[in-house]
Every structure is written in structure tokens, then in C-alpha cells.
Amino acid sequence: VQLQASGGGLVQAGGSLRLSCAASGSTTDINAIGWYRQAPGKERELVAGINSDGVTKYGDSVKGRFSISRDNAKNTVYLQMNNLAPEDTAVYYCALRWGSTVHKTSQRYNFWGQGTLVTVSS
Q1: Where do the DSSP E strands lie in 7-121?
Q2: Which of 103, 120, 121 lies closest to 36 in space, CA to CA?
Q3: DSSP 3-state assignment of 86?
Q4: Are 45 and 36 in contact, with CB atoms under 8 Å apart?
Q5: Band (33; pLDDT cuts 50, 70, 90)
Q6: Which of 21, 25, 74, 85 is the most buried (most CB within 10 A)?
Q7: 109, 49 contact by CB (below 8 A)
Q8: How far apart, in whole angstroms, are the C-alpha atoms of residue 30 and residue 8?
Q9: What's the rounded Cα separation, in Å, for the pair 98 and 16?
Q10: What percent of the chain has pLDDT over 70?
């Protein structure tokens, strides 16, 4: 399985970005894809996740601002990030696990993308 994350960049506070995660290879029909982020000196945290049935989970800090969706035909998951704040600055990674549960724990994910940097200026 290969995951290609894209869409990061520099944005001003209050702005928006949309990240994409394209999966290829033996993804299977039942999987969950999560977006994680890691800022310097901080632990990796779940931002949002979604499974093949569209069940979602969000981190507390992004609820109401971020939205995750997926296009199963394209094996692609999107993370729409609105009202961005400087504390959202981090490297964002997408990860995939086989199975339908959207886990919060990063160790439950089998495959990881390379990460895309999001920088929010104040």
C-alpha cells in the first residue's frame, strides 16, 4: 500500500486548505484512513479519520473547523481545513489500516504517507 499526501502549504490565520491522500496498492475494500499531525516537540495526534462506510472521528481541537471525506472510487481521502490557526501548523500525515475501526492510536495504522507541511501564519 502506498499513500500520497498533498495539499499542504502556507496560509494566513483564518484561511483554508484542502489536503488529499491518495491510496494505491492492496488497500482492500474495508479500511480506515486517518489524518495525523505532528508539530515540533509535540506528539503525533489524530486530526480526523474516516472508514469505508463514511464513519468519521475528529480530534477535539479541530471539531467544527475541519471536515474529512472520501471518494472510494478514487481511493482518495480529503481533509478540508477551515478557519486555520497558527496552532494548526504541523506536518500532516495520512495513514491507512485494514478494518473498519477509525482508531485514535497511531500504532493501529499499518501504512503511512510521507507527510505534507501546513504552515499557518498569524
Answers
A1: 9-12, 17-24, 31-38, 45-51, 56-58, 66-71, 76-81, 90-98, 111-112, 116-121
A2: 103
A3: helix
A4: yes
A5: very high
A6: 21
A7: no
A8: 27
A9: 30
A10: 100
pLDDT at 90 over 80: yes
Q: Dig out the grid coordinates for 98 from the structure.
A: 485494514
Cell of 104: 485514535
CA dist 56 and 96 (Å) reads 14
Reported confidence tier of residue 117, pLDDT bands at 50, 70, 90:
very high
Residues near 64 by beta carbon (within 8 Å), at least 6 away in sequence:
none
Q: What backbone phi and psi angles, to 5 degrees, belong to 67?
A: -140, 130
Cα–Cα distance, 71 to 77 (Å, whole number): 6
Asked whether the predicted pLDDT for residue 52 surpasses 80, the reply is yes
Note the pLDDT tens digit of each residue in 103-112: 999 999 999 9
pLDDT computed for residue 65 by the predictor = 98
Q: For residue 36, what pLDDT is reported? A: 98
In angstroms, the CA 45 to CA 37 distance is 6
d(CA 57, CA 102): 7
